[in-house]
Design a protein that fits this description.
The protein is α+β, with helices and mostly antiparallel strands. Helix content is 20%, strand content 54%. The chain contains 1 helix and 4 strands; from the N terminus they run αββββ. It has a 4-stranded antiparallel sheet. The protein is globular.
Length: 71
C-alpha cells in the first residue's frame, strides 16, 4: 500500500498536472542487507510542446523530472 504521506504527494501532483498517461512501478530502492525499502514509480505525461514529461517518485518524494522528445 501507499503511505498517507505518499498519497498526499500523489494527490498534489495530480491536482497540478492531472492524471498521468502511464504510471509504472519500475522497482524499489534497496537498503542494508538487500532489503527492499522504497517503491519507485514513473509517471509519464503525454507530449506538451512536443516533449513527454516523466516524473520519478521514490516513495513519497518526487526525485526526478525528465523531458523527452518522442522517438
Amino acid at each position: 500500500g501507499v503511505s498517507s504521506a505518499a498519497s498526499d504527494v500523489y494527490k498534489r501532483q495530480m491536482q497540478k498536472c492531472g492524471e498521468p498517461a502511464f504510471r509504472d512501478p519500475v522497482g524499489y530502492t534497496v537498503g542494508p542487507y538487500n532489503r527492499r525499502e522504497t517503491n519507485i514509480e514513473e509517471w509519464a505525461y503525454e507530449p506538451s510542446n512536443g516533449m513527454f514529461t516523466i516524473l520519478t517518485f521514490e516513495g513519497n518524494r518526487l526525485t526526478r523530472i525528465e523531458r523527452k522528445r518522442p522517438q
